[in-house]
Amino acid sequence: MQDRVICDGCGKKLQAGATICLHCGWDQTAALARPESISIVEYIKAGGWRLVVYGLIIALPILGFMRLRTTGPGPDLPTTLRWMAFGDGGRAAELETIHRMHEIGSAAARFAVREMELPPFDGEWEEVLARSATARVRGWIPLVFFGADTGMAPASVRELYEVRSTDGWGRPYRIAVRQIARDEAAYDDPVVAADLEEGLQATFFTVDQPDLLHGEWARLLIESAGADGDFDTEDDLRMISYVLVGHIFRLLYDPSVIQVEIERAYTIGRHYYRIEGSEYDLIDARLLAEYRLTSIH
Fold this sequence. Notes:
9 helices, alpha+beta
């Protein structure tokens, strides 16, 4: 102890040969007790695993619920739990993609009624069609179409109902416009004949065909590269849409009736369409929007 000059208890300097610290009272002859270090593995074996398990029990439902707010519930409990744990495999992105396709077709139909011409699909075309989006014209509440404009809609619903140039994966659509011959010649077009043979929808619930004998029509082909991001592959998504350019006017019609018909055509934004490449339909997309609307999102 003759060479000890530092107190083990407080670190102060001691006089040579001192065994008791005058500052803290520590007996320099006693061994300083130091806790034994323990590794994380030994800690878990000793019972620390409970903390890990309890943490996961609390965290996983929270993370799963946050994921579920985007994907929506599955058709059954096992599917819902799988989506909560591992995601929905791109289902929500696909539903957003096909619903935006429909919004592009509807907005193009409204633009054609108002401007008596097709909208441009080059440059910032989505900004041109934005004012004709369903949310701006008819409201955003899913399946009811009544409520408010786009600015009042939740962001999670707005991304389905807005006209955007990108699909659910954030990649740009590819759009091709084909002018349809007038009158009987329209039905001689092999592309048109194939479309009519395959069938077209007029609404979410009804199948119908455009009256190509009257008026000027155009065919839109709206394509998404799908989950893999490459066009012309098996997972591509497509929507074929037939749009009437302008409005059909007939002689001796009551002007007030014509005005009502034009307003109705603009409000509805009707186009005749078919979705290809997706196992889902627009009802699935609307149900997802309804879930996002009513959930805490």
